[in-house]
Hints:
Distance between the termini: 41 Å
Largest sheet: 6 strands, mixed
Number of strands: 13
Shape: elongated
Structural class: alpha/beta
Mean pLDDT: 76
Strand order of the largest sheet: 2-3-1-4-5-6
Amino acid sequence: MVLLGKNSSEISRVGNFILGRRAFDTEAPPPLAERHNERARGKVERSYITLINTPHLFDPGLSLDQLRVQVTESMSLCAPGPHVLVLVLQPDDFNEEDRDRLNSIFSSLSEEPHKHTLILTTHMLQSGSRADPDQENIIKQIITECRNRHFEFSTERSRSALIEVMENMVKENGGHHERRGFLSAPPAAGQQQPGQLPVYRESEGGGKEEIQTQIKYFILPFLGSEPRIVLLGKYSSDISRVGNFILGREAFDTLAPPPSVEQHSERARGKLIGKHVTLINTPCLVDFQLSLVELDQRVKESVYLCAPGPHVFLLVLQSENFRKEDLDRIRRVLNTYSPLSMKYSVVLPMGEARHFTESLRLLFKECGDRYLSYKEISSLKTFQLLDKINAVVKQNGGKHLTCDINGELPVELMAEKHSGSSGRDQAKTDVGKGGGLANEKENAKEK
C-alpha cells in the first residue's frame, strides 16, 4: 500500500493507525530537512502488509521532473506495484492547485490509478465550522472518480473496518496490483538512463521464475548531511529493537515473520538526541540461505535506500553464539557493499563482555576497536552511541561510503528495487566463506 497526501503528519498518523504502532514520525520535519519515502511492514489482522509513506509529493517546491523521480522511487519500494493507493485528504485544506498536483501524480503512475485508489478523509475542522464549499466539491469529485471508494477516518472507526475496505478493493481488482506505466517512458532531460535487473514471479510449482519484463532503477538526487546508518545483524528482531531504541518509537516490527514471508530492507528517519538520522533496517542480509544473486540484489536494495551511500554500519550481533562462520558471513556482506566497509562500521554486541567469543573480538579489531555493548546504551545512554557514530563520520572526513556494486551501477547515486525472491529455486552457492563476490560468481559459472 502507498500512502499519499498533502499533510505529512496526517498520512503518517494513518500509517501508524493501520500498523498499530508508531512506525512513522508524525512530527512535521523542519523546512530544510530531507524528506524521503519510507517503507514499513507488519502483521495486520491475518496478513503481512507493506506500507510506503510518501510525505513530500504535494510539495509545491518539487518540479514536475523531480515529482516523477520521487514517484518512481515510491513505486520501486513496492515493486512490482501497489495493490492500494490510500489518498489522505483534509476537507478544509485541498484546493484546485492541489488537485492539479494530484493529477500530475496520477499521470506519473499509470493510465488507471483511480481503480486502485481509496480516498481517506480526516477531519481537522474546528467545532462549529465547516469546509469551504468549493473545496468540498473538489473532494467529492475525486471520490466519484475513484469509484466512490471512501473511508472517513476518525478515532471511533476501527482498523478492521479500514482493512476490510482495502481487502474488498483488492478482490474487486482481481488481486492485481497497480501497473506502473511510467517505467517505459524515457527519462526526463538531464536524467541518466535507467538500468535493468531481472524480476521474478511465482511459478506453478510454488517457486520463482524469471520473467522478461524488467524493472528499472533511476538515479536519484539525494543530498544532505544527516547521517545514514545501516543496521546489519543475524536476527531481525534484534536489529529492529535497536532501531526502535535509537528512534525512540516502534518504527520497525520486532516480531519475526514466518519463513514464508519475504523480508526486505526498510527506511525510517527520526532524531537521536536532537540530531536527524536515517536508519536502514536490513533484516535479511545475514542469512546463510541466500544465494549469491539474492545477496547481491538485497544489498543493492539497501544501498538504494541510503543513496548516495551510508555513513555508518551498525553491526548488531549476539555475544554468546557468534562463531567463525558468522564472522565470515559478516565479512562477505560488508565486502559486497565495499572493501572499505570495515572503516565505517561499529559493532553493537547484545550481551555482556564476559560472553564475547574469540570471533567477535576479532571483528572488533577489524572494525578499529569500535564497539559498544547494547546494555551500556540501553539505560538511556544514547549519547554514547551518538559519540561513536560521530567519531566514525569524523574519521572518514564526513564522507559517506561509496558503494560500487560489482561495477554494474554508477558509483555515486543508485536506485533499484526488484520484485519477488531472486531465484530461491536456483542452485545455492555458499556465501559464508571468504573471497570476493565477483570471484564466487565466476566459480559458480564454472561449476
